[in-house]
Amino acid sequence: MSHADWAVQDGAVVEQPRDVQRHPLLAAIYDSHDELIADYLPEGETLELAFGRHIHPRADVGTEAWRSNAVGVERPAVLGDARSLPFDDGVFDAVIGRRFLHHVPEADRADILQEANRILRPGGRVVLVEGTPGLYRRLTKGAAFHLGLLDDDNDRYGHLSEAAVTDLVRDSFAVVTKRTLGSPLMLASIARSPLAASLFPLYERTQCVKWWTFVVGRKPASDG
Ligand SMILES: C[S@@+](CC[C@H](N)C(=O)[O-])C[C@H]1O[C@@H](n2cnc3c(N)ncnc32)[C@H](O)[C@@H]1O
């Protein structure tokens, strides 16, 4: 089964991820994350970095390093690298980035937060969702590979711990909130059956099982 094309570009793993809308439970999970993220977005212009095939409804523009991801997104999309953004200083009020810091080498990750800080207005926010490493992730992903539900693993740089994501944000921003989001019920979230979506209430009850880290940072109002 093949759902994604991918390549390594200047060290970053770029790809066309699976189409979320074809996986009903995953689509419901993305919708719930969209709502959570919206609670933290200020008014104004929002950029989503590395949106893959799902851009936030409140995003005004997206940036992606994999050209074909812009097709069908129905939003202005700019081909670009999050480590060196093609935007002027201070032009956005919010920057969203989901599940992509682990696609760049560790040494490049601070550049992404510094670029987000540069293009934000004072008081602007960065909103990140990243996968957590750990035994549960290894076991569920291992099972999915074993069952042929996942392709080749391109996770070459490993996921960031909650502390690593928070520290990156803290280096350039004041931390507004940090929390863990729970289990995506991996096997069911990959399934395409509409029945899988009926597991959403169960997903909501398993928030104690760490799967994603959610961190929001605010750019200080002035440099002084
Ligand atoms: C796991 S996917 C996540 C996509 C989407 N954010 C989501 O949550 O469904 C990672 C995405 O990051 C993109 N990406 C990786 N490195 C990047 C970079 N340096 N600049 C911009 N996009 C990048 C890939 O092309 C891919 O679409």
TrEMBL record:
<dbReference type="GO" id="GO:0008168">
    <property type="term" value="F:methyltransferase activity"/>
</dbReference>
<feature type="domain" description="Methyltransferase type 11">
    <location>
        <begin position="77"/>
        <end position="128"/>
    </location>
</feature>
<protein>
    <submittedName>
        <fullName>Methyltransferase domain-containing protein</fullName>
    </submittedName>
</protein>
<dbReference type="InterPro" id="IPR013216">
    <property type="entry name" value="Methyltransf_11"/>
</dbReference>
<keyword id="KW-0489">Methyltransferase</keyword>
<dbReference type="InterPro" id="IPR029063">
    <property type="entry name" value="SAM-dependent_MTases_sf"/>
</dbReference>
<dbReference type="Pfam" id="PF08241">
    <property type="entry name" value="Methyltransf_11"/>
</dbReference>
<keyword id="KW-0808">Transferase</keyword>
<dbReference type="GO" id="GO:0032259">
    <property type="term" value="P:methylation"/>
</dbReference>
